[in-house]
């Protein structure tokens, strides 16, 4: 695979991380598959360089020599040149009773072996193969918003210069979508289904209406926090239009902010939530399920966290494990490149006419609005 194939790898793509797989293992697997694909291709043609060689003068009667500019291939990547610069010579396997010289005794004529009492006979074949390592030995692959081992879903990776775009995605404060599955009536020490059970409660009194009421209060509390962290003056028309279109973003790092949450399925003890948020961790989402259970006067644990969208990458863009090969990743990067450029430009470009409020105080402490869910007003429900 030549430089052209490597050039098509600079950019972003999404992979689907299954549950139980660490993100570092996924990244290392993708890097290994890309290196194998690059090295398995046809080696590129040697580069040409101009050399001035002596030669006879064309059309001259006398035997005169002159320097002529000639294009010749460079031998810097030739196996023999690699052997000279980095001697990694391995002997050919011995057949029968054939004995070989030590690795540094590259010869084909009989001569004594140092430290041995016999000589290699002239009829014994001695040959050595020069070993040239793979052309590509390392490739830089970066990971965007990470997923822990228990979570699954869309994981964005950047290859080569595409790693810079991961920083742009981070600075754009893009939202992400999750489906979070909860289980009523149980509480564990780590909010996960496989954690140590600490409490069991009844949940017969929990209804869909009560759950929807709690979710509406959570969304309203976090939307108010989002406006405060954005430091925008909502008295301006431009800022109001941004709020209507859902384009308000915090100006700096903030606690987890939920821009939307709703119940997709409710069949006690199980329920399924769709959460749109930013600056979150999967552990915070599991704690969110636990705190929702407390607000419902019961307990709840999280049995599944699945990311369905990361910025402008969705499940449809994510490559499955069988597609983590060179050509599939190249095609995914090239297909996503125009959309990535357009979305990042739109997200990072400030809206004209927007004004920020200087020195605006924040109503929450360092724990942010996720502490206690901001649901003090729903204590009576």
Main sheet attributes: strand count, strand direction, barrel closure = 9 strands, mixed
Query: Could you tell me the number of beta strands?
Result: 15
Regions with little confidence, pLDDT below 50 for 5+ residues: 83-129, 353-367, 374-381
Distance between the termini: 65 Å
The helix count comes to 8
Question: Mean of the pLDDT scores?
Answer: 80
Oligomer: single chain
Output the structural class.
Answer: alpha+beta
> How are helices and strands ordered from N to C?
HEHEEHEEEEHEEEHHEEHEEEH
Broad shape: elongated
Helical content class: 25-40%
Roughly what fraction of the amino acids lie in strands?
Answer: 15-25%
**What does the radius of gyration come to?**
32 Å
How would you describe this protein?
The chain has 381 residues and is an alpha+beta fold. The protein contains eight helices and 15 strands. The chain has helices at residues 3-7, 23-40, 79-85, 163-171, 208-230, 237-245, 282-295, 326-348; strands at 11-17, 48-56, 65-73, 89-91, 128-130, 141-143, 152-159, 176-184, 186-188, 197-200, 257-267, 270-278, 300-310, 313-314, 318-319. The strands form four sheets. Strands 1, 6, 7, 8, 11, 12, 13, 14 and 15 form a nine-stranded mixed beta sheet that branches. A two-stranded antiparallel ribbon has the order 2-3. A two-stranded antiparallel ribbon has the order 4-5. The radius of gyration is 32 Å and the shape is elongated. Mean pLDDT is 80; it is low at 83-129, 353-367 and 374-381.
């Amino acid at each position: 695979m030549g430089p052209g194939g490597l050039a098509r790898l600079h950019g972003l793509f999404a992979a689907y991380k299954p549950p139980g797989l660490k993100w570092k293992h996924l990244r290392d697997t993708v890097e290994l598959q890309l290196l194998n694909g690059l090295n398995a291709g046809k080696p590129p043609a040697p580069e040409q360089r101009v050399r001035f060689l002596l030669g006879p003068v064309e059309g001259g009667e006398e035997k005169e020599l002159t320097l002529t500019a000639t294009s010749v291939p460079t031998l810097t990547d030739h196996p023999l040149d690699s052997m000279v610069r980095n001697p990694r010579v391995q002997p050919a396997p011995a057949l029968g009773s054939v004995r070989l010289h030590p690795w540094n005794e590259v010869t084909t004529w009989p001569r004594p072996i140092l430290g041995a009492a016999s000589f290699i006979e002239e009829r014994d074949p001695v040959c050595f193969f020069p070993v040239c390592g793979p052309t590509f030995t390392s490739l830089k692959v970066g990971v965007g918003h990470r997923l822990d081992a228990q979570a699954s879903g869309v994981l964005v990776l950047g290859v080569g210069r595409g790693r810079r775009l991961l920083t742009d995605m981070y600075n754009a404060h893009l939202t992400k979508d999750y489906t979070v599955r909860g289980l009523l009536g149980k509480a564990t020490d780590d909010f996960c289904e496989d954690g140590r059970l600490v409490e069991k409660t009844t949940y017969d009194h929990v209804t869909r209406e009560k759950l929807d009421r709690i979710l509406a209060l959570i969304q309203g509390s976090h939307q108010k926090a989002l406006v405060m962290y954005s430091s925008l003056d909502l008295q301006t028309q431009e800022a109001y239009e941004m709020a209507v279109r859902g384009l308000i973003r915090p100006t700096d790092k903030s606690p987890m902010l939920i821009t939307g949450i709703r119940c997709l399925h409710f069949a006690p003890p199980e329920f399924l939530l769709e959460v749109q948020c930013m600056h979150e961790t999967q552990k915070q989402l599991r704690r969110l399920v636990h705190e929702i259970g407390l607000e419902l006067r019961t307990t709840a644990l999280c049995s599944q966290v699945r990311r369905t969208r990361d910025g402008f990458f969705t499940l449809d863009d994510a490559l499955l494990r069988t597609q983590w090969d060179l050509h599939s990743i190249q095609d995914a990067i090239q297909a996503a490149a125009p959309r990535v450029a357009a979305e990042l430009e739109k997200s990072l470009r400030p809206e004209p006419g927007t004004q920020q409020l200087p020195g605006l105080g924040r109503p929450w402490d360092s724990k942010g609005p996720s502490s206690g869910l901001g649901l003090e007003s729903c204590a009576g429900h």
